[in-house]
Each structure stands twice: as C-alpha cells, then as structure tokens.
Amino acid sequence: MVLPEWIWLFFVFAFGACVGSFLNVVIWRLPRDKSLVRPPSACPGCGKAILWHDNIPILSWLLLRGRCRNCGMGISIRYPVIELITALLFLGLYILYFDVDIRGLGRGEGYGLSGFLEGGWLWFACHILLLSALLAASAIDLELWVIPLHLCWFVTGMGVFGSAVAPWIMDTQIVTTFRLFPSASPVLGILALGSMGGLAAALVLLKKGIIQPSYPNSEESVPETDASEVRPDAQDNDTIPHRREILKEIVFLSPIFLGGLLALAVYRFVPAAEREWNEVMACPMAAGLFGGLWGYLIGCGVVWATRILGTLAFGREAMGLGDVHLMGAAGTLIGAEMIVVAFFVAPFFGLAWAGYQWIFRKTRQIPYGPFLSLAIALVMIAHDWFWNYWLRLFREPMGIQF
Fold first, then answer.
1. Helix, strand, coil fractions of the chain, as percent rounded to 5
2. Residue ranges of the domains in the chain?
3. Which of 1, 117, 208, 379 has the fewest beta carbons under 10 Å from its own?
C-alpha cells in the first residue's frame, strides 16, 4: 500500500515540530551547562512539571494562550516560533529535495518518496541535522553572544560519519556525480590526514601545557542570568592583550600546517607511499571520510584566518571560536569549496541587516553567527547554482585540478 503524499508530508512537518521542541531545550540548557535530559521540563514560575498534553509542539502554547496552566506565568513566544520554524525547515527541505528535486537527482522525473527510502534519507537526515543545529546556534548566539562548542562538535562528528558511510548506503555514482557529500582526491586526502595528525599533536601539547591556551579565562557556557550580562558591551575588557593571545593560537595551529605539509611531501616524493595511498583513496568510503575532514579543516581555517588577521590588525578579538567550529561543522557536509563560498556570502546578510538598521534607525548589534548560518543554509540548498558559479570563476579559467 502506497502512503498518500499528504500524510507523509504531515508526518515530516509533525516530526520537525517535535525536533523543534527539543531544540528549545538545547537553546536554554546547553549554553548554561545543564543536562538535556534531566530534570524534566518544568515551569520556571511554580516549578510544576509540564504534563505531556501541555507539551505538544505549537498546539499546547496556543491552547494555553501562552500561559502556565498552574500559575498563569507567561510562556515565551520563542518556544512555538522555534517549533514552527523547525517544522517548516523539515517540510521545506524534504519538498525541495524529493518533490521539487532541486538537485536534479530524478533527472526531471521527480525523486519522490522512493528516492528518500532508497538511501536519500541519509542525505536528508544529515542536512536537516545541520539546519537544526544552525537554528539552535543562531538562537543562542542572538541571546547570549556565544555558540556552544559541544553543539558544533556533535554536528562535526555526524557530518564526518555521514560523509564516510554515504557511498555504502546510497548509490556511489549518485553521491559523487551530484556531490551530495564531500569527497576528497588523493592529494586532498593526504593533506587532511596530515593536518588531522597535526591537530592531534597540537591538542596533546596543549593538554601537557607545552602550548598555552588563548584567552584562558573565557568560558564556553554562561550563567543562568540575563542575556545582557554576556553581551560584548558588558564583557569587553580593554586590558586583555589581544595580539599576544592570538599569537598563542598561531602556535597552536602550526603543527596542523606542518602535519599537512609533511604528509604531502611524503606522498609526492615517496613513490611507494603514493601508490599505497592512491589505493586507499580508491575506496569511496575513504574518499568520503577524508572529504568530510578536509571540509572541516577548510571551514575552520577560513574563519580562523580572519580571526587572526583581524585581531592582529585591530588589536581586538575578531570573530569567536564558536564561529570557527560552526563553519568547520558545516564543512563536513557541504564540502570545502562550498564552505568558502558560504563565508563570502555571509557578509551580504550582514550588509542587509546594516541597511535595515540605517533605514529604520535601529541600533541593536547582533553577532555574526546568524549571518554565517543563513549563508550556509542558502549555499546548501542552492548548491548547484553556487557550484557552477565556482567552476566558472575559479576552476575552469585557472585549470585547477586536485
């Protein structure tokens, strides 16, 4: 029996709303270093646990008219808004990928539910995970001016895993031809391997105290307090020697660059190593694994370079490490080239916001994370257009081959 399309779409929407309900928990608890599973959700006013029928996404807030059933305390409209946005993201991405077939996988015939069930679910699951994480990170960043690194690391792990197993779950030719997941050539793979080895060495040196951490008093989590207490204007401290702190990050990054260069040198000048590595990278899962890792390195690198250069130039901390890890996480799923494109698309969202402020005489400052998130989402959905533009702009005229 074939499931009617409208029932399936309703299920996708409803499941997205449930995920949105969980994102509300993530948005509130994760930056405050609280458990995501305990204690159960309760009213902050009266402390009463929220019953299951008062915790139905979107509907419960409407039925309760935005107030606690027990004490009447107002419930922020943010909760149903996040649930609705997440539900629309789930529904919209599914329609674009499998009904509209925006990536052309069905070759004009519509990919449909069959494409979803025949491996497309992994592609959808990884991309909707990224969009959900971007939504949560943006909401946290807007309120508290911080992006929890644990959220970025979770997406990074899932992104690398998804890129590695995609050729095993989906048709390998479809994955590579339509660039559904990152895939590395032998050269990029060896660079990724050496760089990750250098990263491991840098982390060991940091752990042993041989490399000093930058901004040692900074925190990944914030106290359970008003958002204004963690805004830049409240935390700004001109006594911090920013240039000296950023030099520590350059020292930390040095083993990563050296590891990549060393691995590339071995690959280029040791024929036996080149042959062995080429055989390894001939495996689609290895190409996917190192493609995801290379996307992570480039995503982190492009923002970290901006952070370092901006701090050295202006003597103030430029961009945050949360932005670095957010772009790295996205790079594991959209690939190295597209994460660079997203980085250069993000300023246009910033300019649009500046124009809005200028027209309506608004003065509220907002962090850069939401602009990066919007750019990543746009590049991911309009991948083919941006990819073709990338080819016309760089690869074809320069004859770049990796």
1. 70, 0, 30
2. 5-144, 152-398
3. 1
Read off the tokens for 9: 């779409």
Burial of 209 by CB count in 10 Å (0-12 exposed, 13-18 middle, 19+ buried)? exposed
Write out the E strands in 211-344: none
Confidence check: pLDDT of 398 > 60: no
d(Cα 266, Cα 263) in Å, to the nearest integer? 5
CA angle 295, 314, 214 (to 5 degrees): 60
What pTM does this model have? 0.91
Cβ-based neighbours of 175, under 8 Å, separated by 6 or more: 166, 167, 181, 183, 284, 288
DSSP string, 93-149: HHIIIIIS-TT-TTTTS--HHHHIIIIIHHHHHHHHHHHHHHHHHHHHHHHHS---H
Q: What is the pLDDT of residues 82-136, one digit of tens each?
A: 999 999 999 999 999 999 989 888 755 557 888 898 899 999 999 999 999 999 9
